[in-house]
Amino acid sequence: MKSTNHLRMMVYASLFAALTAAGAFLAIPIGPVPIVLQNLFVFLAGLLLGSRWGVWSVAIYLMTGALGLPIFAGGTGGIARLAGPTGGYLLGYLPAVFVIGVLSEKLPKKPLFSVLAMIAGALIVYACGVPWLKTVTGMAWSKALSAGLYPFLPGDALKIAAAVPLARMLKEFIRT
What does the pLDDT look like over 16-46, one tens digit per residue? Predict the structure, then answer.
């Protein structure tokens, strides 16, 4: 029975890696950091798969993209994307999904706590992404915040609002 559950979780992790990749194709280029749906699927992976399998999901996604498959925003891939302006955001998905997963495992299964877990995850992505963007591009802090944080806050709020009912609905189908 344990091996069946392990296999099921590997399939779910792979599925969320694929969904994260699909979310990257829905990109709106607004500067060095595009608006994407990737983080919606990272949030959902943390909520639904937990810390361990959520991290595996994001790790699969990042490794596949780093190996050259065109699954990052704009249909790009390769290790250079992780070193570019968006690399901090991409790498920030790992600690973000871990924290979302831990919080969803430890806190009561209420929508408010799911929202708080995803807010914590989004803050981690920004804490990794904005300084990276500043460093890689040589932007001033004000410019890095204007290009890599402020435009994304309303969309992330909408993604978090959408993730709560999606997670509740999908939880019935995903047995962890």
Answer: 999 999 999 888 888 888 889 999 999 999 9
- In whole angstroms, what is the distance from residue 58 CA to residue 98 CA? 10
In order of their start, the domains of the chain are 2-171 (1.10.1760.20)
Phi/psi of residue 72, each to 5°? -90, 170
12 Ramachandran zone, left/alpha/beta (phi>0; psi -120 to 50):
alpha
Which of these, 86, 121, 85, lies nearest to 104 by C-alpha position? 121
Structure tokens at 171: 């939880």
Distance CA 34, CA 23 (A): 12
0.90 cut: is pTM over it?
A: yes
What is the spatial distance between Cα 25 and Cα 129, in angstroms, rounded to a whole number? 19
Alpha-carbon distance of 16 to 51, in angstroms, equals 13
